[in-house]
Amino acid sequence: MSASQTPPGTPAALGDDDPTLLVKIFGKDRPGITAGLFDTLAAYAVDVIDIEQVVTRGRITLCALVTAPEGGPGAEGGLRATVHSWAESLRLQAEIISGRGDNRPRGTGRSHVTVLGHPLTAESTAAIAARITGTGGNIDRIFRLAKYPVTAVEFAVSGVETEALRTALATEAAALGVDVAVVAAGLQRRAQRLVVMDVDSTLIQDEVIELFAAHAGCEAEVAEVTARAMRGELDFEQSLHARVALLAGLDASVAEKVRAEVRLTPGARTLIRTLKRLGYQVGVVSGGFTQVTDDLRERLGLDFASANTLEIVDGKLTGRVTGEIVDRAGKARLLRRFAAEAGVPLSQTVAIGDGANDLDMLNAAGLGVAFNAKPVVREAAHTAVNVPFLDTVLYLLGVTREEVEAANTHDHE
Fold it and tell me: What φ, ψ does residue 219 adopt, rounded to 5°?
């Protein structure tokens, strides 16, 4: 059989001028509504072209696009009367709209727009929707990803290129105080990924060097230099050497105390556990120290970890670091190295960080996420998350809260 031949009994493709009916059902949800509607339609031998159903606070909206029944106006009238009668018997409302052909094709340039609000207000939702329309985009679908600890909704948008949409919404999001992420639609969103995080003030709530400095009695001096470096006011490598020099003479055993003091960011374990379940590989890069990151790698089951190493001689910190310096350029270099080792294209990587020394890494990744970041970082990253829950990054990848909780429940059964 040639490719142009159609097997016997195969229905003809729906044409743009073929009559169709949009059947819409509204009312209080209960089991059996969907089956009941299509059982009713089956009596008229119609074909199903499209279905959409949503239930919100116990109210169902069910839409079915079907071919018009054969037999002309009489058959269509019978279908209408039967559907309305069935709906009334269940105290539902029905609306049937005549038309032609299938849905209007979606435009090119398709994206997923994730909006995080704490709370998500009607004002901010209206502004985001208006800005999407203003760029020439069309909102094809909206659904909720999570209701806590933040409200997260996703817009499926077509008709505008992803980069143009991202640029337009970044400005709007900053003005509204909400977090908006824009990623291209397509199979790559479901592909295996590599996620690489900064450590200090990202994976953990602390700045590791400040924890060491507290034991050396120079916390205030170190904190000031750290803050200036994260704002981009100082060269990171110079600031690193200056801060580490203040630790000279500290007993090496203090590293164990620092490891015990480290506090994971809320949602960090959930994020990593869920990513690993999805088959993702996860790593960390840090301007901090291997004396802490090696422990985190073991505790959290990370695939990759790289950081600076405090030099120890005769059981004391010398005030120097050894080996390759992990600075701004080094983090981006390590992201590329991890991606190559993981066999993941750079376009399929996600980088998360908060400081100026994370910028090269965030920009090199397929998706760069500024997490509770300094202004200079928020402005330069692909997207920003400004709530204190690291697992909200999952929503940017299209993972819902229900899926996370279901996986947790399954693991504990």
Answer: -60, -45
Element (H, E) at 403: helix 401-411
Residue 187 burial (C-beta neighbours within 10 Å; 0-12, 13-18, 19+): exposed
Which residues does 137 contact at the CB level (< 8 Å), separation at least 6? 107, 109, 111, 157, 158, 159, 160, 165
DSSP character at residue 107:
P
Tens of pLDDT, residue by residue over 315-374, are: 999 999 998 899 999 999 999 999 999 999 999 999 999 998 999 999 999 999 999 998
C-alpha span between 63 and 49 (Å, rounded): 11
Beta strand segments in 68-188, E? 93-100, 111-117, 138-146, 151-158, 179-184
Residues 6+ apart with CB under 8 A from 340: none
Active site amino acids? 198, 200
Q: What are the helix (H) ranges across 135-217?
A: 162-176, 208-216
